[in-house]
Amino acid sequence: MKTLLAKILPFIVLLFCLINISFEPVFYDPRDMDSMEALLEGSGRELAPQWGIERGLISKIRLTSKVMEELNEKSIPADAQLDATVDRLNRILLGQKIMLFIYGFLIFLSVTSFLSLYYRAWFYTFLNRSLYLISILPVLMSLQHPIRSIPQTPIIGTFSSLALFTLAGFLIYMCFAISKVYGKKFADRFGVLETAQNGEEGEFQSNSGSKISWIPILFHFVIIMVAGIVLGNLVYIPIFLLQKHYSFEFGILLLVLIFFLMLFYIRNYFRMGKSEELSPTGNITLSISYLQFRIIRNTIFIGFSIIGIILFVVLLFTVLSMNTWILDFTSGKSV
């Protein structure tokens, strides 16, 4: 049962994301002003509570971008431009692009999660658990329309709400049960990469506990500083000017470079971790899945590092502020 559910859930999440990107089922409530405005954009003749189909996320982004271009046209007089409207549309467009990135990431993650589970890779637990945790929020956000429609359309609203609640329940359940789908002896493909990863972490821990020599550290620090200055003047400044004056071309160049970098990592993972039991296609797909595993893992590490740095800086400024306040208070009393 757990194995079957674990294999089905990635396809359900994939279908859920594709539906939200292509079109969005929406419930129009006449008592809600936003629903009335959306309803009047259609025929304007039907005012009863009803379900409707709105543009998908990609169509909404295109429409919002087109409206932004029209509002930013130079032919419009400066006093006629609505700054508040433009700012609001900018925020809406940013939110839509973020949601599109999340759905695109979930689509790719659902595929790699299934492949890691199907080929019994050692990292299948991490990928599938990441898929379940990230998918819970969009699923719960989609519950607003079905729940609101239950009083007016009880059958459709109740069925849709139960379906989404069931999906959210399965996602939460499988977050805890995914590790029990396969035993460790059955899910050990690409184990060479796990050994290499554990070896790197163990070497880092052993080095941190040994005696530190400051001369190599200072030498490396000087080399890094010099390399940073050289790169900053010869590479970073031209790249900044390229991004400033040719943003579209720079975006294409950046995507191409990222694509080739991904190919480089996939090739290395394929050469190091390929299994003789799998076909070349299976090994390549597992290499892609392992790349996403590393991306998610490194993103989590960077995120927690940034949070730790922010908390440390906030704590430092809080202590300094308290010391300043104590000094001011004591100096005022002495006077």
- As for the number of domains, it is 2
Q: Profile the largest sheet.
A: 2 strands, antiparallel
Strand content: under 5%
Question: What gap, in angstroms, lies between the N and C termini?
Answer: 77 Å
Helix count equals 11
List low-confidence stretches: none
**Structural class by helix and strand composition:** mainly alpha
Number of strands: 2
Based on CA atoms alone, the radius of gyration comes out at 27 Å
Spatial sequence of strands, sheet with the most strands: 1-2
Shape category: globular
Average residue pLDDT = 78
Descriptive account of the structure:
Keywords: Membrane, Transmembrane, Transmembrane helix. The chain crosses the membrane at residues 98-119, 131-147, 159-179, 217-240, 246-266, 300-326. There is one protein chain. With 335 residues, the protein is mainly alpha-helical. The protein has two domains: 2-189, no CATH class; 191-274, no CATH class. It is built from eleven helices and two strands. The protein has helices at residues 2-22, 33-40, 57-71, 83-118, 124-141, 144-149, 154-177, 191-209, 214-245, 247-273, 280-334, and strands at residues 23-28, 50-55. Strands 1-2 form a two-stranded antiparallel sheet. Helix 5 (124-141) runs antiparallel to helix 7 (154-177). The radius of gyration is 27 Å and the shape is globular. The termini are far apart. The mean pLDDT is 78.
